[in-house]
């Protein structure tokens, strides 16, 4: 084969330029030296326009989910846009009840972006995918002019296999169901905000970003009647519960005293006037199950390394107005609304 | 269900703001009033984190392909970023030999983008998908601050079903194979360039953007031994043939006199000093088949509305250097290299 690489990319001090998105030799070089190396698998090596995936087991159905990632800053305590773009999408597949198997990825790079940062991000994606047993099978790279993007945006699409006998949906919650969460709330959102604003708080404020497929599998096993799982990302627990209430036409009542919130997040929220219920988590799982299955499900969550601080936080009630409310520690009830605006843009 | 919509979106004179990407009420409203309406299908209505797709037929395998779309300008003669983002990705699935079935979509919107333009783009996507019999089953919306994006970027992932007995790849070309193209070259690239630079040329310069699944099916039927199909987009025919030559470790020799180029593109290329071989097409199909199948395949292409100007343009030869060459009309041979740089960024 003729050598088309005049010289290797300067991955130390080079930068992305428009030619890297042009479909020609420079793009092939970027794909080969950065992405194919970081995501190493037989599909990418083949270099076709797409990937041919093996058939699923009989009865299994494909679950697909997409997320675009525009988090700012790109690197933050506990992760970066690369690991987040893998976790975020494979978690969306996992909370549908499916075993995540494959990812595709679309990069939109800004001219002038340092190749060293791109490599770091690609390697972080590769590690996160490998750790979760997921292959990044196909992708695309575009470059926009300086000032028309913001470093790098990453859109990932996740595909997974849903067993024949399971189906979960936000529309399946019923009065009497229990609402559980796998750990403390809002670490991801608060870590991003602190990093962005240069704030430091007591305690370790790190993103909770994590792959939830193992925890989700434990939940599926512990609760045969499981209604649904969700990861409370953008908009936090408040938005997620309001969505579920609307999808299922039910109400939800939370117990304030039961909500797990770390001391660092609680302190930062108090200082900034924010509510942990509106802050994104990227490694927490919300589950709704029949009331009778709450105890074994809680035990299963707590037995998993990612669920040690799991809690039973509320219950589903009959309410055609679809209100989400909270029983406060003072004995009253208040509405838990989703925010009309956005306290914290670009957290994922 | 409680009414969470205080008032409908102002789709005439309103603009995207950061809250539309915040995971809360404003985002739900945007999704409901723009995307769910434009892409109407049972998966989206459900509102879960992803879509559960029906099982494929026994023996069929899933083909998946992703493209990010950053075309500038967003609207151009013959299409817009919406129709392009549907055609581009479903074509990548179709040229793998698969029947396109589903799309997922990730939007990255810039704060301040007119909602009227977003609606126009979403409706164009919806129409393009419906025309091709493809459902947009799941998606995501992010918003970045003014000056951190460029109106709208759209990443689509396409999924399709590959019959059990077929497999195509850029690695399957063999000496003696014939190279065919379904129509004139470079209309898309030249239409974008003319629009961007405010140039007018004689003749109708419109993008060739089109859904190729029907034409691809005709090719599969006409050529049982078909090696591969491609759509020569970024980098044009030159980049696509060089990729194939490298994947298959073969050479390719084109006949200049056989290359179909419209008069408008030829004139514009002459004026601008460009080569139609480097210009993107978005509705043309390149096929490589055993030499003996070239005649029936050419006939089948020409019998299809999208292939009337199809031509047999060259042949695959043994060449370990992977050279792509052209037999010129003057009788000589010249190299057809892919460009190191980028004559025309952001054409898709």
TrEMBL record, chains A, B:
Q: Where is the PurM-like C-terminal domain?
A: 174-325
InterPro entries hit by this protein: HypE, PurM-like_C_dom, PurM-like_C_sf, PurM-like_N, PurM-like_N_sf
A family per Pfam = AIRS_C
Name all PurM-like N-terminal domain ranges: 47-161
What biological-process GO terms show up in the record? Answer: protein maturation
Q: Which family does the similarity line name?
A: Belongs to the HypE family.
What protein name does the entry list?
Hydrogenase expression/formation protein HypE
List the gene name.
Answer: hypE
